[in-house]
Amino acid sequence: MAINDGGIPPILAQKHYTQPSALAPESLPREARTQKCTLQLTAVAADRLRCRLL
User: Fold this and answer.
1) pLDDT value at position 5?
2) Distance CA 54, CA 45 (A)
3) Whole-angstrom Cα distance, residue 2 to residue 18?
4) How far apart are the C-alpha atoms of 12 and 25, rounded to whole Å?
5) Model-level pTM?
6) Which helix (H) or strand (E) holds 6?
7) What percent of the chain clears pLDDT 70, i.e. is strictly above it?
8) Rounded to an integer, what distance in angstroms lies between the CA atom of residue 37 and that of residue 19?
9) How far apart are CA 37 and CA 31, in angstroms?
10) Which site among 4, 15, 18, 27 is 20 to 30 Å from 45 CA-CA?
11) Which of these, 30, 27, 26, 49, lies nearest to 38 by C-alpha position?
12) Which run of H or of E encompasses 18?
């Protein structure tokens, strides 16, 4: 992993600890449902495509 001149990994170099998080605890369940739904839709589409190819 590359380290910048300040000895901090690049992923943490632009972290602003004083600003509020973009992910609020109350929104995490909604995000999880959204991700689960997206994965389910992707699985259904893959199944349909697989059936068409056989």
Assistant:
1) 67
2) 15
3) 25
4) 21
5) 0.39
6) none
7) 87
8) 30
9) 10
10) 27
11) 30
12) none
